[in-house]
Amino acid sequence: MEGTGAAARASVIETPSGKAAAGENFPVGSWLIRKDLRRHVHTFYLFARAADDIADNPALAPDDKLRRLERMGEILAGGPGEDAPSAVAMRASLAETGVTAEHCHDVLRAFRLDATKLRYADWDELMEYCRYSASPVGRQLLDLHGEDRAAFVPSDALCSALQVLNHLQDCGEDYRDLDRVYLPLVVLAAQGGAVEQLSGAALTPGLRRTIDNLLDRTDALVVTAQDLPGAVASRGLRCESAVIVALAGRLAALLRRGDPLATRVKLRKSDFAAALAAGLWRGIVGPAA
Helix H segments across the chain? Predict the structure, then answer.
């Protein structure tokens, strides 16, 4: 029996990185979310985290990453086997809640792209990537709460903004560890930046201008995202979405002043406290706010 258990563990295709929800820029299934739905939010997060860890694993070849991600999709769709535990749990969650599997498959599509794509030509190409890497997170939450899909528009804007902000935070690490660059090449060139500068210890003037240009575009996404709390009927989700919109604005402001190559630019406890206060107020006052 012990040998069988060891073989089963060895056959697991997931490669956990140790990253967890506590390290994210936004709350994941916090106490603001309806209690009976929190575990389903965490199940989706762990599914996406497992796929992300595979795509970002520097020890795996691209073909191996694709094979593992395809296997997650097979199990999610009902295929036999338990070698992707997060997909098994996600499939059970979807069966229990009745939420479509499309958002999970969209996430897998994005991470398959991460396994092979190292550069993005322009902003539109980056936004297309965010449609599959980020937007499904908000869409899953909205569907889980039974919200109107009209809320997808501001939700997509918020999720894309958060994704770009995360790319800016990690731009040096992504280049050094994975040779992956999310800064659009057209923007880099126009602002006098170069990919190779991402290996430096501090931003060059060209990289600074590139990041500021991308922050201008991200600020526009956050403006659209400000409509999200008013489009959500669930009080808890309305509060949480308002908190996240506030956090996105605060992180963008920090990146305006900070240098992500020199140090980790991240939200502070005071940012979370202020965003929480704003989110609770918005949730209590209601959609009219």
Answer: 2-10, 35-55, 62-76, 85-97, 102-116, 123-133, 135-144, 152-169, 171-178, 185-190, 205-225, 228-231, 235-257, 269-285
Closest CA to 255 of 273, 278, 271: 271
The domain 118-289: what is its CATH number?
Answer: 1.10.600.10
Q: Is 236 helix (H, G, I), strand (E, B) or coil?
A: helix
pLDDT tens column, 165-177: 999 999 999 999 9
List all residues 6 or more positions away from 4 whose beta carbon is below 8 Å from its beta carbon.
none
**Distance, first Cα to last Cα, the chain:** 60
263, with CB counted inside 10 A (0-12, 13-18, 19+), is exposed
The tokens for 15 are 């490669």
pTM (global) more than 0.70:
yes
Closest CA to 113 of 98, 127, 99, 129: 129
Domain ranges in the chain are 11-116, 118-289
- CA 12 to mean position of chain CA atoms: 24
pLDDT in tens, 205-247: 999 999 999 999 999 999 999 999 999 999 999 999 999 999 9
Measured CA to CA in angstroms, residue 275 lies from 121, 141, 243, 248, 281 at distances of 34, 19, 5, 9, 10
How far apart CA 195 and CA 124 sit, in angstroms, is 19
